[in-house]
Amino acid sequence: MATDNKQIDKVIYSYTTSSNQLEEENRLLKETVNQLKEELDKFKKTPLMICTVKDITGKQAIIQIPNGNEFFVENVSQEKINPGDSVLVEQKNLTIIKKIPKSKSFAVESFVIIEKPTITWKDIGGLHKQAQEIQEVVELPLKKPELFKKVGITPPKGILLYGSPGTGKTLLAKAVASSTNSTFIEIVASELVQKFIGEGAKLVREVFELAREKAPAIVFIDEIDALAAKRIEIGTSGEREVQRTFMQFLAEIDGFKPLDNVKIIGATNRKDILDPAIIRPGRLDRLILCPVPNEEARNEIFKIHSKNMTLEKGMPIKDIIKRMENFSGAEIRAVCTEAGYFAIREDRTSIKKDDFFKAITKVKQDEELEGDDYMGMFG
């Protein structure tokens, strides 16, 4: 009996000792877990940086921070993270903390002009050949994509309109948007480059996402030479940013299928300085010149802008047209507006020939003054 009691005591002692050891181990584990939680909480303290995941390798990832640099970092997030996701990272070690929902960096609608134009082909004078080309390249693929599939040809993804200022490039783009009932999204490339240093590539990406959402859409990039000019060497951070934005723009064009419901139209006054990458086949490969109007074209444009004006009888239209030699379409419109003002100043509703002659002189002088100011910029 005594022996049995000793054995029982040994078993009890053994269990007690094991229990004490387990309790001690459990206490140490709890302390370790708490320490890890504290470390993790330190990581989670704001401010945290928003980055984009470029690639995933096990528990590590390649991320891109807002200035465009990339880093290989640790990933302690419990969520599944994929390339392209937006994540919060700790600023010191750039450790990924958690995934966040994709959100637009910009209220992109406030940085672009979005409209449903009402301009028709009849509102454009002197550009019949150009209008026909745009109808073939932009309008037809949007209206009859099945025709291109049957014939077995691929239409261009976009076009480039080039020529002197005021020759109708924007009007042509708006007219084709109107004829196809497309959303017209206009970006001025020079403003994009100047205003969004560090963010240009993101804005370009979001503009094209917006175009897909609002398809059918026409993305019109005015002054595209500010974004897509030839660059011999990339020196300053600003030049590097412009290059990043340009590369993102090319990537977006390449991402479209030729028969998608989004077409891209670029416009420039300086085709000679464009990077060849932008006009190679598969991008903006149809080049359309918008020239300064000849006499016949000036006559058409003048009729469009003066059709609602009250003109005196015997108006010497031919003489007025000849005096406007080398005027752009925008300048002819300005002449009609100024002639109306000369009549209003004299409390008249009818426009005389002298009103047009004075208006032509004024527009010429204004153009010469602008030219002098431009030359003055260069000393």
SSE order: HEEEEEEHHEHEHHEHHEEHHHH
Describe the strand arrangement of the main beta sheet, using strand numbers. Answer: 6-8-9-10-7-11
The CATH topology label of the largest domain is Rossmann fold
Number of domains: 4
Please tell me the CATH architecture of the largest domain by its name.
Answer: 3-Layer(aba) Sandwich
Helix content: 40-55%
Could you tell me how far the N terminus lies from the C terminus, measured between alpha carbons in angstroms?
A: 118 Å
Oligomer: single chain
Q: Which word captures the global form? A: elongated
**Major beta sheet, specifics?**
6 strands, mixed
Task: Supply Rg.
Answer: 33 Å
Assigned CATH superfamily of the largest domain: P-loop containing nucleotide triphosphate hydrolases
The number of distinct helices, counting runs of at least 4 residues, comes to 12
How many individual β-strands?
Answer: 11
Query: Beta-sheet strand percentage?
Result: 15-25%
What is the average of the pLDDT values?
83
Instruction: List segments where confidence is low: pLDDT < 50 over at least 5 consecutive residues.
Output: 374-379
Tell me about this structure.
By secondary structure, the protein is an alpha/beta fold. The protein folds into 4 domains: 1-45; 49-100, OB fold (Dihydrolipoamide Acetyltransferase, E2P), CATH 2.40.50; 108-289, P-loop containing nucleotide triphosphate hydrolases (Rossmann fold, 3-Layer(aba) Sandwich), CATH 3.40.50.300; 295-376, Helicase, Ruva Protein, domain 3 (Orthogonal Bundle), CATH 1.10.8. It is 48% helix and 16% strand. The strands form 2 sheets. A 6-stranded mixed sheet has the order 6-8-9-10-7-11, with helices on both faces. α2 (128-143) crosses α3 and α9 packs across α11 (329-345). The longest helix has 43 residues, at 2-44.
